[in-house]
Amino acid sequence: MQQNAPGEGLFVTLAALSLELRLLITRFLQLSLSTVVALALSVSAFAADADPQLEAVRTKVSSMFQAIEPEHVNPSPIDGWYTVQKGSIIAYISADGRYLLQGDLIDLDQQVNLSEQSRTDARRELVSTLSDDDAILFSPAEPRHSVTIFTDIDCSYCRKLHNQIDEYLDRGIAVRYVLYPRNGPASRSWTKSEEVWCAADRNRALTAAKLDRKFETTKCDASMIGEHYKLGQGVGLSGTPAIVLEDGTLIGGYLPPAALDARLEQTNAHAAN
């Protein structure tokens, strides 16, 4: 029978105690971090609840506007005013709940449009919720950029843009199409959008539809068109085509391939700085 060297048992015991101590410290740190996060959230919620004026304005606005929930009303950068924001739609309301102002809030010292900054952040978050599988994706083999484009099948400039799709792809720009029939659910464009969505090859079907050509389709669950439409409303579209860059910047209207490429490069360079 093999015997331990003198003192070896002591070293084994110390090693086990050291390991147990490290595990206890790790658990303590994890619990401490969770406690800090929970405490921060509680303090934040308490701060909002502790402002009776804010709660009064939230109650008033949410009761007057069906689409606005109390959490859509929050403190603004200006004392005496609150921000009302749902998606990229932003307004400001006075602390007494009497005056509602819709427009851009600009910090002249910093030369920053604070309202547009908030809209951009909101658009980025909204568009990020849409997966590639829930869009119609045209992508080069090695994309350098990706844009989300809201398109109406019958819109003339949407057709002009799609007629140059190969040029966008050649520049390394992946295009995620979101179907946005501007005239709503009762329109012929909505029906066409559903037919495109239900086609076995949506890319070919979209191209054919924009050329007024026939394509094979079938019946399917086309509720995604409604989701596309709601997304466009949340983004704050005023027309099509509408191009949303990866950072949430909205470009209203058609942009040629070279111009879009240059804009994307400029945006990336700005982000890098």
Question: Could you outline the blueprint of secondary structure elements for this entry?
Answer:
Layout: H1 8-49, H2 52-64, E1 73-75, E2 81-86, E3 89-94, E4 100-101, E5 106-107, E6 112-113, H3 114-128, E7 136-138, E8 145-151, H4 156-163, H5 165-170, E9 173-179, H6 188-197, H7 202-210, H8 224-235, E10 242-244, E11 250-252, H9 257-272
Parallel strand pairs: 8-9
Antiparallel strand pairs: 1-2, 2-3, 3-4, 5-6, 7-9, 8-10, 10-11
Helix pairs in contact: 6-7
Provide an overview of this structure.
The chain has 273 residues and is an alpha+beta fold. The chain has 3 domains: 9-50; 51-103, Roll (Nuclear Transport Factor 2, Chain: A); 127-272, Glutaredoxin, CATH 3.40.30.10. Helices cover 48% and strands 16% of the residues. It has a 5-stranded mixed sheet. A 4-stranded antiparallel sheet has the order 1-2-3-4, with helices on both faces. A hairpin with a 2-residue loop joins strand 2 and strand 3. Helix 6 (188-197) runs antiparallel to helix 7 (202-210). It is globular, with a radius of gyration of 27 Å.
β-sheet strand percentage: 15-25%
Sheet with most strands:
5 strands, mixed
**Rg on CA atoms, Å:** 27 Å
Number of helices: 9
SS elements, strand count: 11
| Intertermini distance | 69 Å
Strand order of the largest sheet: 7-9-8-10-11
Query: How many structural units, i.e. domains?
Result: 3
- 3D shape: globular
CATH arch. level architecture of the largest domain: 3-Layer(aba) Sandwich
Average pLDDT, to the nearest integer? 86
Q: What structural class is derived from the secondary structure elements?
A: alpha+beta
Classify the fold: give the CATH topology of the largest domain.
Glutaredoxin
Unreliable stretches (pLDDT < 50, length at least 5) are 1-26, 28-47
The CATH superfamily of the largest domain is Glutaredoxin
CATH class designation of the largest domain: Alpha Beta
